[in-house]
Write a structure and sequence with these properties.
13 strands, two-stranded antiparallel ribbon, globular
Length: 359
């Protein structure tokens, strides 16, 4: 856990986000230069500004200032987490209903559960849709479901497990860079190598820092943890090469021009799931694609540019996979939490992070 000083610094960061964020009525779209930078950071989240300068055609200082403006307004942010790795081998989707009078209490309590990685206000057959992770089914039951059972105001919940995840949010990309630019940026990523990291296990303090700021420098880590700068640099280098640590650049979907999130719950013959996922990867808006247990066995989540896109995408889904039965579509009203980050009603980062617990 973070020390009091570390929490104070993170709280100051949260206030900075809050003070710089606009209200939903003051929503701004990201510029083309902003989107190009974010696309580059989706590919290589820790690439240096001087490395990106020749690719983006801008001075390193200009790029740094641009990112600081984007980041401080909560329009994009970089984090590191272990969701979907061996540390969270059991992923589950939990559909929650609550008493309307207890809505705020339920949402606030769920927000504080580290294993509840993401959740949103949903429509149709549920009030909330949660994505939660744990190392095992037993720990999922103990650390997630048992806690849900004790939350005042929850009237019903049901769980389905992700049996095979084909695509997740960190694989989603903007379409702002050319193919050549994407290749050049891709070369800036360090390769994951378990042999190089050996038995290295990052401390909870280091994981907390990287969850709040995936671009934290060795100097930042040294200051916050009290270790020598050389030690901090060595730990950071090893963390960057850990196959189990995922780095991602997230973006406010409304500011990026994709204000609508839609989930499709479907039935599909089990032997077609892999081929279906391959076809769905051709669609630019796919954020999540997973096989599941439950009444339906296949889930697709997409970001869309408008409500009119929902019907058009349903047509495309059925053209790509004619045998798929779309049982239900559900449009998200508000994303509360994404990969541990708390969001504003218009989808900006607040700066508050509840890091998913790893073991």
């Amino acid at each position: 856990m973070l020390t009091r000083d570390q929490r104070s610094e993170n709280n100051a960061s949260e206030r900075e986000f809050s003070e710089n964020s606009c209200t939903p009525d003051d929503q701004e779209l990201l510029t083309e230069d902003d989107l190009s930078l974010i696309h580059a950071l989706q590919i290589a989240p820790r690439a240096g500004w001087s490395q990106l300068a020749p690719v983006l055609g801008a001075h390193p200082n200009t790029i740094a200032e641009r990112w600081e403006r984007i980041r401080s307004r909560g329009l994009a942010w970089i984090t590191a987490h272990e969701l979907g790795t061996s540390q969270t081998s059991c992923l589950g989707l939990i559909e929650v209903d609550y008493e309307l009078a207890e809505r705020d209490t339920v949402i606030e309590t769920l927000s504080r559960i580290p294993e509840v990685v993401s959740f949103d206000l949903s429509t149709r057959s549920r009030d909330l849709l949660l994505l939660a992770g744990a190392p095992s089914v037993g720990e999922f039951s103990r650390d997630v479901l048992d806690r849900l059972a004790g939350i005042r105001g929850i009237t019903h919940y049901q769980t389905s497990f992700c049996t095979r995840v084909y695509r997740t949010g960190e694989q989603w990309r903007l379409s702002s860079l050319s193919s050549e630019q994407q290749r050049r940026v891709g070369r800036l990523n360090p390769s994951s190598n378990a042999d190089e990291t050996g038995s290295f296990e990052p401390s909870p303090q280091l994981l907390d820092i990287l969850a709040h700021n995936g671009r934290a420098t060795a100097a930042d880590i040294a200051r916050l943890t009290g270790v020598h700068a050389t030690t901090a640099q060595r730990q950071l280098n090893k963390a960057r090469r850990m196959p189990s640590l995922l780095w991602r650049c997230d973006v406010s979907q409304a500011a990026a021009g994709y204000p609508i999130t839609c989930h499709w719950f479907a039935r599909l013959a089990a032997d077609l799931h892999g081929r279906a996922a391959t076809e769905l990867a051709k669609l630019p808006g796919v954020r999540l694609c997973t096989s599941t247990t439950g009444a339906t066995n296949f889930l697709v989540t997409m970001w869309l540019s408008g409500m009119e896109e929902v019907a058009r995408m349903e047509e495309q889904l059925l053209e790509l996979i004619p045998s798929m039965q779309l049982v239900e579509s559900a449009v998200t009203m508000q994303i509360i939490k994404r990969s541990g980050w708390m969001l504003t009603p218009d989808g900006r980062a607040t700066g508050e992070v509840v890091r998913p617990v790893s073991r």
